[in-house]
Specification:
This protein is of the alpha+beta class and about 350 residues long. It has 13 helices and eleven strands. Strand 1 and strand 2 form a beta hairpin. The chain is globular, with a radius of gyration of 21 Å. InterPro entries: Emycin_Estase (IPR007815), Hydrolase/PRTase-associated (IPR052036).
Length: about 350
């Protein structure tokens, strides 16, 4: 993912400052690969707080364990092969548990404490959102999915960010590291078909201008293209792919024409200019292709590097457990020419 050195820098930084930079995950369990990372601690919680519900969550864990994988790309196809009765039983059981959690909140808090209840509830919500995602992905791959049905994951991630903000001191700031397609503020469409509402759109709606979407891209170099392969460890393989020259009307073409090299462009003021003149760039790189989107509306700023490279450890990090990606494409990072430039990254 190309963030190894920035993370090491932050760890060294934390040894010398107070308060330290804190890290938190925001994604659904195993980035959609398995429900067990969420359901296991929820079962431990219920064992102490509401043991009568243990048979319910144990049944959910049994079904979830039968198709658990290392990523959504591996788990989703396995989910489609489950008997329909198991698919429906898993959804019904998770929904029943979630409704009970919310309905008897005073009971659970009185038997434990507020913090442990909030965390257990959030984990269960993550499992429910991930379960919904399996159905959405199945529909997407089959060609009969509902419009924008894959948005459930991004809604959960946005709510996770807000969850952490609400439970921290006033004035807390979060640096959120994720793929461009997760942080952008406008809907995602492919070939004119609406496919999802990204996390960034939800955060912008909730936080207004307090949310700043900084995209990352490059005008050249290589990217790690993901190719679906159910036999591979993560449900896909990685192909090192050379980036083609920027397409006309892309933000990359604008950077290349300006000859700025490693640079940052603020887009908020540019929106005002574009409203009175010609529209801005209408596409940005997405792996080795281009996503057609109004760039000035989608992002508040763009960090551009002349070339991106594929991280050496991309294969072992391909499951993306925290939803953390570089904007130039999964598994890529900006190879920055100025020594030390990469040391100022942070994580959620």
């Amino acid at each position: 993912m190309g963030v190894d050195e920035p993370l090491r820098w932050i760890r060294r930084h934390n040894h010398a400052v107070s308060p330290p930079v804190r890290f938190a995950g925001i994604d659904i369990p195993a980035a959609g690969g398995s429900l067990l990372p969420s359901l296991t601690p929820v079962a431990d919680y219920l064992r102490q707080i509401d043991p009568d519900t243990l048979p319910l969550i144990q049944e959910a864990m049994r079904i979830a364990g039968s198709f658990a994988g290392t990523s959504a790309a591996a788990a989703a196809p396995a989910w489609t092969r489950l008997p329909t009765a198991d698919q429906d039983a898993l959804t019904a059981t998770l929904t029943r548990l979630l409704i009970r959690f919310r309905a008897v909140e005073p009971l659970y808090v009185s038997r434990g404490d507020r913090r442990s209840y909030d965390i257990a509830l959030r984990r269960l919500e993550g499992a429910c959102q991930a379960d919904y995602g399996f159905r959405a992905m199945a529909g997407l791959f089959a060609g009969n999915g509902l419009t924008a049905d894959t948005s459930a994951r991004d809604v959960y991630m946005a709510e996770s960010v807000l969850w952490h903000l609400e439970r921290n001191d006033p004035g807390t700031r979060i640096v959120l590291v994720a793929h461009n397609a997760h942080i952008q503020r406008s809907p995602i469409s492919f070939n004119g078909h609406l496919t999802g509402f990204p996390m960034g759109q939800h955060l912008h709606n909730a936080l207004g201008n307090d949310y700043f979407a900084l995209g990352l891209t490059s005008s050249g170099g290589h990217t790690a293209e993901m190719v679906r392969d159910e036999q591979a460890r993560f449900g896909f393989t990685i192909e090192h792919t050379a980036l083609q020259p920027p397409e006309p009307s892309s933000i990359e073409a604008a950077f290349a024409a300006a000859g700025l090299g490693l640079s940052v462009a603020g887009l908020r003021q540019a929106r005002t200019w574009a409203a009175d003149s010609a529209p801005g760039p209408d596409r940005i790189r997405l792996q080795s292709t281009f996503l057609h989107t109004p760039v000035l509306d989608a992002f508040d700023g763009i960090l551009h590097t002349p070339a991106s490279t594929v991280a050496d450890n991309v294969e072992c990090e391909a499951d993306d457990p925290g939803g953390v990606r570089g904007g130039a494409g999964p598994g890529t990072h900006a190879r920055q020419e100025a020594q030390g430039e990469g040391d100022r990254a942070a994580a959620p």
